[in-house]
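Now read these lines:
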Amino acid sequence: QVQLAESGGGLVQAGGSLRLSCAASGTGFKINDMGWYRQAPGKQRELVVTITSGGSTNYADSVQGRFTISRDNAKNAVFLQMNSLKPEDTAVYYCTSRATRWTSITEYAFWGQGTQVTVSP
């Protein structure tokens, strides 16, 4: 089992910045792709950005140019630097990780509990 611990959420004024962190822990799994999703009240969970183990990224159009994802493979950690925040960025942000058991090719998806990001006007 892989556990994801998120931190860094909070309340910030529009135009401000926040940095989210996520660390994966567990035994017997190889961590593959990681990323961030978010869910605003009354809305479906949506992609923010994903990053492969090799560093390739895929950003949602709504955050392109403002958010930056990075990862530390040695520590199984992923980060999200959020700049120029807008009120519409307000949501619960979830860290996600795809992992494979060392003895299998079957890939599983794991999710963190989420961290609240609130951007005030």
